[in-house]
From TrEMBL:
PROSITE patterns per record: HTH_TETR_2
Domain of life: Bacteria
Keywords noted in UniProt: DNA-binding, Transcription, Transcription regulation
Span of domain HTH tetR-type: 14-74
Keyword Transcription: yes
Protein name, per record: HTH-type transcriptional repressor BepR
Sections of the chain in a coiled coil: none
Gene Ontology molecular-function annotations: DNA-binding transcription factor activity; transcription cis-regulatory region binding
Residue range(s) of DNA binding per entry: 37-56
Keyword Transcription: yes
Amino acid sequence: MGSEEPSFRSLPRDERRERILVAAKRVMLEKGVDAASMDDVAARAGTTKPTVYAHFKSKDELFAAVVEYIRGLFLVKLRGPADYADEPAEAVALFCARFLELVSWRDAVGFQRVALAAAGRSPSLTRAVHDTMFAEGCRALAAYLRGRKLARNPERLAELILWATIGGPFIRLLYGVEAPAEEFPDPQRLGTRVEMKRIREAVAVFAAGWNP
């Protein structure tokens, strides 16, 4: 059994929990859900396995907490369409561009691959990752479309717009056809990887049919 680092022991309980979550995220990305162990997580966090179990009763509970932790980070970085522009088509285009940037980050792509590999054993984990990465984005976009009265079925339109703008690039990243972004997206500006012309053209097709 490993020993606990003094630096870990001196942290407040909430910070110890977050350190375990960050360590678990790294272990999951490196080894996958099935191969990752609580011993691995404890060693990466600089603590002991009993301490990890004091915070999380099982590996499944820990990994579910990791998904929720990532969800919180993802939503803060994504924001809503209204935060990007006043004009609806541009607001939606910039929202989709930011969404694509976030899911194109190396860890986001890796997390999707880990979740897909675990789908047979842990379908609830895979659904939770899908909800974190995609369903939340659809809900945010649908809420904007509904609030602006731009669509009769905002949920369906939001899903169509997101997949029209991010689907192709993300599938290429997921299958390794293209390399993911190594650095986390700059929160202040879009990176050069995002093809805004293509995204604006895709959104314009839908915007032409929006309710006046």
